[in-house]
Amino acid sequence: MTIKELFKQAVEQNLLDLQILIMFLVYEKQVLTMDDDTKELDLYFLEKHHKRMRKLLLEYKAKLKMKEKPCAWKVYTNKNEILYVYTENELQARTFAISMKYEPLKVAYVPEEELMTVNDTNITIGELIKGKQVPYLIGIYELGNYKMEGI
Question: Which of 4, 65, 82, 91 is the most buried (most CB within 10 A)?
């Protein structure tokens, strides 16, 4: 996979930090190109670079005046339920679940185009979150006796 393809996915999934990392390395420092393989990013994820990269990326983010856009998340819980929440980021989704007395097992991004059925009517997540303040509980899906695999 190329960095360009990864960047496109990061935009589609609202992964701002990944977008910033790629833009910083490609446009600001010019050490990578959009045509490079994503394996080239591995160097920047090494533990020894975390502190310095974090500082540089925070400065770059402030320079660009970029802020994360709130989005919807599925929070798989220890109670065999999936919480659908609208939060600033994945960490806030986890924290919000904990504040509601759930143990989050896994958190996954939910695109705004995803359909939900509310009162026998199909509606997109985007419509459900329109005008809502974060954090916001969109809904709870009970899995019942369904065994969650891969969590």
Answer: 82
Residue type, 139: G
Amino acid at 142: E
Is residue 39 domain-shared with residue 76, that is, in the same domain? no
Number of domains making up the chain = 2
Q: Quick check: 132 and 141 in contact, CB under 8 A?
A: no
In a shared domain, residues 37 and 20: yes
- 150 assigned to some structural domain: no
pLDDT per residue over 65-110, tens digit each?
Answer: 877 788 899 999 998 899 999 998 888 999 999 999 999 999 998 9
Contact 12, 111 (CB under 8 A): yes
pTM, two decimal places: 0.60
Structural domain includes residue 151 = no
Nearest to 28 by CA among 65, 67, 69, 56: 56
Read off the pLDDT of residues 15-72 as tens digits, 9 standing for 90 and up.
888 999 999 999 999 999 999 999 999 999 899 988 999 999 989 988 888 777 888 9
Is 92 contained in some domain? Answer: yes
